[in-house]
Amino acid sequence: MTRVAVLMGGISAEREVSLNTGAQVLAALREAGIDAQPIDVTQDLAGLIATLNAHRPDAVFNALHGRFGEDGCIQGVLDWLGIPYTHSGVRASSLAMDKIAAKAVFRAAGLPVARHVDLSPEDLEAADPMPRPYVVKPVQEGSSVGVAILREGDNRRASIAREWKHGRMMAEEFIPGRELTVAVMGDRALTVTEIATHLAFYDYEAKYADGGSRHALPAAVHDDVAQQAMEVALAAHRALGCRGVSRSDFRYDDTQGEPGRLVLLEVNTQPGMTRTSLLPEQAAHCGIPFPALCRWLVEEARCGA
Predict the structure, then answer these.
(1) What are the residue boundaries of the structural domains of the chain, listed by start?
(2) What pTM, to 2 d.p., does this model score?
(3) CATH number for the domain formed by residue range(s) 96-113+176-269
(4) Which of 5, 17, 33, 297 has minimal CB crowding within 10 Å?
(5) What letter does residue 95 receive in the DSSP assignment?
(6) What's the CATH code, domain 116-173?
(7) What's the number of CA atoms in the CB half-sphere (13 Å) around residue 1?
(8) Local confidence band at 204 (pLDDT 50, 70, 90 cut-offs)
């Protein structure tokens, strides 16, 4: 029987999300007949390495989110130890986690991206970096941590700048319209999901609070746009060098009618993996049950890029 260590928790702002993902994955792997054991990742890196060396699992299921879990750090540790792991390797993980670096890759590949400005909190406090509305976001966080939309009449700009605690900052043009996402599994884009929320935008609460969002799949969008979204998601996955699964997030501006403007926002190399998360929902829609999805990820696990 394959022995798998499920890494969960971590030390990022997304620790609780990761613990939820890890618990769901652990149960699914056991349901799929895999000997899976949890490892709660903390600040004690030496302890983690000792545990992995002592038990030497056949593979690691990386259920970590955020910094140190999906930015190439833990991937480098596992490469060093020679233990195969799920999801993307060091290069793709670090590129995808750095939104500005990822945009450069997407732009070079001819993919549609939003205008952005790299800035400091001091820059933001001094003046608007671009015409409103625009989005302020961390360069290297996930789950919409730290994201804010500044519209006309909003007086939060200086306070956001002074209270900033999320590392590097960027501003990005706000794209009106709808939120779409496409998961990629191997060399296949699964389907298009539209995400709707009653909140101001698809923020951390919308993603994880009960009733925070509603998912419609396949999304009710123009056929040409659905096809474009799936093609762009697969192209972005390949451009970054992702492996296993990824999820591409889009804004779709149909405010002037369909077909409208589709814009790639980012690629998530460690999508949420609860049974009701976006990737497992799309997989289930395509006939792939959650335990089978988790087992496939373990079968695809490897070291290196």
Answers:
(1) 3-87, 96-113+176-269, 116-173
(2) 0.90
(3) 3.30.470.20
(4) 33
(5) H
(6) 3.30.1490
(7) 11
(8) very low
Instruction: Tell me what pLDDT residue 247 has.
Output: 98
- What gap in Å lies between CA 249 and CA 125, rounded to an integer? 29
Q: What is the DSSP letter of 255?
A: T
Q: How far apart are CA 254 and CA 222, in angstroms?
A: 10
Q: Are 189 and 245 spatial neighbours (Cβ–Cβ below 8 Å)? A: no
Contact 304, 79 (CB under 8 A): yes
Q: How many CB atoms within 10 Å of residue 177?
A: 16
d(C-alpha 137, C-alpha 64), whole Å: 21
- Helices vs. strands in the chain: H and E counts, helices first: 11, 12
CATH number attached to the domain at 3-87 = 3.40.50.20
What residues act catalytically? 14, 143, 208, 247, 249, 266, 268, 272
What would the pLDDT profile of 65-88 be if each residue is shown by its tens digit?
A: 988 999 999 999 999 999 999 999
CB atoms within 10 A of CB 80: 10
> pLDDT for 225-279, tens place per residue?
999 999 999 999 999 999 999 999 999 999 999 999 999 999 999 999 988 899 9
Cα–Cα distance list, 18 to 23, 54, 79, 144 (Å):
8, 24, 21, 15
Bridge-based pairing of strands 245-253 and 261-268 is: antiparallel
Strand ranges of the sheet holding 178-185, from the earlier edge strand across to the other edge:
214-216, 188-196, 178-185, 245-253, 261-268
Closest CA to 207 of 113, 274, 122: 274
Contact criterion met (CB below 8 Å) for 248 and 264: yes
CA gap 192, 42 in Å, rounded = 35
Q: Cα–Cα distance between 92 and 94 in angstroms, integer?
A: 6
Asked if the bond preceding 218 is cis, omega within 30° of 0, the reply is yes
pLDDT confidence band for 198 (50 / 70 / 90): low
